[in-house]
Amino acid sequence: MTIGPSMHANAVDSYRSDGFFILAGFSSPDVGRNMLEDVIDIVRDPHEVVSKSPGMLIVSEAQKDLTGVNPEDTISKVFTLHTRPAFTSFLNDNRITALLVDLIGPDVDCFLSQFIFKNPGAWGQPWHQDSFYFPFDPPRTIVGLWLAVTEATLQNGCLHILAGSHTEPIHTHIPDRRPEANHGYMEIVDHDMSGQQPVLMNAGDLLVFDSHLMHCSIDNLSSGIRAAMVFHCCAADTIDLGFEQYNNFKSPTHQFMPLLRDGRLVLAP
User: Fold this and answer.
1) Dist CA 175 CA 76 (whole Å)
2) Closest CA to 78 of 125, 44, 30
3) Has this prediction a pTM greater than 0.85?
4) To pair with 94 at 20 to 30 A between CA atoms, which of 2, 11, 232, 237?
5) What DSSP letter does each residue of 18-36 carry, written as one string?
6) What DSSP designation does 84 have?
7) What is the pLDDT of residue 249?
8) Rg over CA atoms, the chain
9) Which of the residues in the chain have pLDDT under 50?
10) Confidence (pLDDT) at 1
């Protein structure tokens, strides 16, 4: 997909007003399949790969009722992938860099990446704002890039979003109240979500969203995986205050990688 000037302007306007936009058919489905194959290789041989990739984190689903034949069948997420070629090449796409320059500025870091498996039977993640997990200075603008690796439907656990909620401050989040919820899942309970809308996507579609946007995902009731790859990017001068704010705890999923300086790629392919 080519992002022409008018389409680019409309997308940015939608981001400002609604907190998100979708670029249908942004990537070939092969891009996501290559990512999936790489992550499966990691999960099947974690000691070899993770030992060579500082900061990489593999997280299993906490649900006791999930079973499978292969190691990846019970995995929830794999974090800190943005230094691996299959993922760096996506960030280096000139359409991505053009959007990031418009939304953030000429100096950009990618600080978080996660591959989401969402296997059959896996629960969704409750309503939250990603910036709750990002105690940064400055707190904005942080851009999320959500690539559909597989189709995302009402049956297999697509996202739901609340358009316009990105204009609100970070709401109170409480721990997910479901027994066996994944570690770190938090939820917003002080807001009316009746205006929510599902985000139905095909493999290769890209959701670009503000980190203050309220969103959730629903349970995967299908027999197949609903996979996605998510990157988060921020201004290059951003400071992570988590260490000071959370009893000297630094999030293991935050690994800042210089991406753009003066609008140019730091590590060109």
Assistant:
1) 18
2) 44
3) yes
4) 237
5) HSEEEETT-S-HHHHHHHH
6) S
7) 63
8) 18
9) none
10) 52
